[in-house]
Amino acid sequence: MTENKKRVLVTGATGFTGGALARKLVEQGNHVVALVRKAGNIEALQALGVELVYGDITDREAVISAAENCDVIYHIAAVFRTAGHPDSYYQGVNTTGVQYVVDAALQHKVGHTVHCSTIGVHGDVEDLPSNEESPFNPGDIYQRTKLAGEELFAKAMAAGLSGTIFRPGAIYGPGDMRLLKMFKQIKRGFFPLFGGGKNLYHLSYIDDLTDGIILCGEHPNAVGERFILCSDEYGTLKQLSAMIAAELGVKAPSFAPPIGPLMLAAKICEGICKPLGIDPPLHTRRVEFFVKSRAFDNSKAKSLIGYAPKISTKEGVKRTIAWYQENDLL
User: Fold this and answer.
1) What angle do the packed helices 16-27 and 206-218 form, to 10 degrees?
2) HSE-CB for 17 with a 13 A CA cutoff
3) ∠36-37-41 over CA atoms, to 5°?
4) Does residue 276 belong to any structural domain of this protein?
5) Strand 200-201 relative to strand 235-236, pairing
6) Which H or E run includes 66?
7) pLDDT tens across 32-65, in order?
8) Lower CB count within 10 Å: N or C terminus of the chain?
9) Pairing between strand 170-172 and 226-229?
10) Are 318 and 229 spatial neighbours (Cβ–Cβ below 8 Å)?
11) Residue 237: exposure state from Cβ atoms within 10 A (0-12, 13-18, ≥19)
């Protein structure tokens, strides 16, 4: 291994962000180790030559084993808002898992550890654009457990752990599946802009984000800091949907029904399904996508560690659509 190239552990490497990060780290010449579950999708990591350590982020000994002899840890693993999980599962992955990463970093004297939080810790913020000092206001179990994990990690940094926390914007780009439904609906010509689409939406293109994550792991000014990593621009949901439509060559969404009936239906749906352990077909969080504004200031990361997003939203949308089309997803 050449000088300045490191042995690096990436958790969450079978996911979209962790996988893109692992790929970039390998391309830079680093030896990447990934903590993966045996049931995980590991083919892409194997093709990259990533060293696989089998285990789960909720298994303390597995995490400690994976971190042995590592120079840097990038902790990306998390459980998002997926179906059928009790609150204890979110707690185990998003909070207790962070403690295990901290334990591993301390036991093996890892040089630096980077923790992925979420802009969701800010919840609904009145003053936009928000920054790293904006109030915390988590609104659901995912955001609450991610905040608890972030605060646990911050406490470890205050006690001497060399670490950095970052909060990404809405992550998208080639390989992303979370926003695919939105792109498909716009292509079909039916993407209702509930409430008018006036809310702000702030994206983070995957290549720019992984550049920022690596800066968090390598830049000396990153030690002990928290950063928001997002693109340089944001706009309304209506503007974003029009941009997607233009790239797809279809008419921009214009149907704007009121949000109230949809939110009421979502609350009723959750009230019926959750006690039965059924994933509701309609979630209040999905409805909130149409009303909550999210806009952020990335100037701290730009000034302290040289974060420099290169991909405009228009270009990012173009590249994302191209990937969807190449993979017959649209």
Assistant:
1) 60
2) 31
3) 80
4) no
5) antiparallel
6) helix 60-66
7) 999 999 877 899 999 999 999 999 999 999 999 9
8) N
9) unpaired
10) no
11) buried
Tally Cβ neighbours within 10 Å of residue 230: 29
Range of the domain at 32: 7-176+202-231+297-305
Rounded Cα–Cα distance for residues 154 and 159 (Å): 9
- State residue 1's pLDDT score: 38
CATH number at residue 155: 3.40.50.720
What are the pLDDT digits (tens) for 203-249? 999 999 999 999 999 999 999 999 999 999 999 999 999 999 999 99
Q: How many domains does the chain have?
A: 1
Place of tokens 């990937």: 323
Residues 132/226, Cβ–Cβ less than 8 Å:
yes
Distance CA 76, CA 114 (A): 8
Phi, psi of 116 (to 5 degrees): -90, 115
pTM over 0.90? The answer is yes
Residue 153 in any domain: the answer is yes
**Does residue 240 belong to any structural domain of this protein?**
no
In a domain, 65, yes or no: yes
Kind of pairing between the strands at 31-36 and 51-54 = parallel
Contact 75, 116 (CB under 8 A): yes
